[in-house]
Amino acid sequence: MGSASEDLLVTLQILPGFFSNCLFLALYDSVVLVKRVVALLSRSRSAGCGEWRRMLTSEGLRSIWNSFLLDAHKQVKLGCEAPNSKVVKVADGPRWSSPVVPYGSRIQTSGECRLLDFETSDRPLVVNFGSLVEDFSEVADFLLVYIDEAHPSDGWVAPRMGPCSFSFRKHQNLEERIGAARKLIEHFSLPPQCQLVADCMDNNANVAYGVANERVCIVHQRKIAYLGGKGPFFYSLKDVRQWLEQTDLDKEYRLLCKSTFFLFTMLLLLP
Hints:
Blueprint: H1 2-41, H2 58-72, E1 86-89, H3 94-97, E2 112-114, E3 125-129, H4 133-136, E4 141-146, H5 174-187, E5 194-199, H6 204-208, E6 215-220, E7 223-227, H7 238-269
Parallel strand pairs: 3-4, 4-5
Antiparallel strand pairs: 1-2, 1-5, 3-6, 6-7
Helix pairs in contact: 1-2
């Protein structure tokens, strides 16, 4: 009975966000349809060109609902211990051929590892599931986790967004997932300070962090120091930048305090 009441409560909490997402997709499809009709009536040359892929489909509804369930049941909590999910290093990528590796990290050169292996004792780890890297590489380490495809070619297909759009089917095994991650980093340059890993096929990182589409969080001393919102609508790097800027200022302030204390001590010791 307790489990059923908890499930009902979660469902009631999810429904407003779920319906708002559905409304957005319905409006999006309506706008696209109106544009195509107007183009057809005006006898535009581009009328009817290109395949129209509706976003509000049964696959889309299922994907949205599952994403809200993942968010509701995520293990990660702000201020609590960070889940140490299993991930797989994406070999042959620019990150692993680069000599830039977090000092003191426990990562190996290949194979399966743990997400917190990339955290050092005194530096925050920015974990992006889905840049700020160059600006804040002095104060933090960065990790990009490639997860299950949100819009696979054999599932909820999204409209193409320009010539650099990619099409991947649902990952059937770990080799396909790593291959897709490699293909992405071949076309999108990631800074050498950012390590790249892929979630395991049991999607344990996706489930633990309630990602579904995308999410960013900051791990510091094995605890969640910052937990970003559920993507795509609440995925924002603005707060992450502010957090890192504050961390950088705090670091400079601590160094200044140490220098001032040392200078004051030396002055006291002078005859």
